[in-house]
UniProtKB/TrEMBL annotation:
The keyword Kinase does not apply. The keyword Metal-binding does not apply. This is YvaD family protein. The chain crosses the membrane at residues 9-29, 49-66, 78-99, 105-126. Pfam families: DUF5360 (PF17314). Keywords: Membrane, Transmembrane, Transmembrane helix.
Length: 142
């Protein structure tokens, strides 16, 4: 049941990152919706430092969905990578705003979502596959 939610959450998150960065590239975020000090060059650089991470999240997440559709077991590894990176992206933003004592409910909500939703799924991907052959309790290389 829980895993049925993963596909739409991946789509929402991964496409959301792509849309966010396109909107950012073309300067389409209204000043009223921008986070504090959005025009400060240091904050702009901080924000852009997330670009490679966020795009990697989208690539691994969407690729995992492609592999899952093709019934390739590697989808699980790409999904786990995407989930962990998503958590880290949200954590870094929340930590920054927390340390700088900046609270904007909209930006916090988006980034808390990025931190929290992966936690429901990561366990599923790190549990051992019960069908995996084992020797002395450890997985055997195939």
């Amino acid at each position: 049941m829980l895993m049925k939610l993963l596909k739409p959450l991946f789509f929402i998150t991964d496409l959301g990152f792509i849309v966010y960065w396109l909107v950012t590239i073309f300067h389409r975020i209204p000043d009223s919706a921008a986070f504090k000090d959005y025009d400060n060059p240091i904050i702009v650089a901080w924000n852009w430092s997330f670009f490679p991470l966020d795009i990697l999240i989208s690539i691994t997440g969407l690729y995992s969905l492609y592999l899952q559709k093709k019934k390739r077991p590697a989808w699980r590894s790409y999904a786990l990578i995407s989930l962990i990176l998503t958590f880290c992206s949200g954590l870094q933003a929340i930590a920054f705003w927390g340390f700088s004592r900046d609270f904007d409910v909209t930006w916090w909500a988006f980034n808390l979502y990025l931190m929290i939703y992966p936690l429901f799924f990561i366990r599923y991907f790190i549990e051992k596959d019960p069908s995996e052959p084992k020797a002395n309790g450890l997985p055997v290389s195939r």
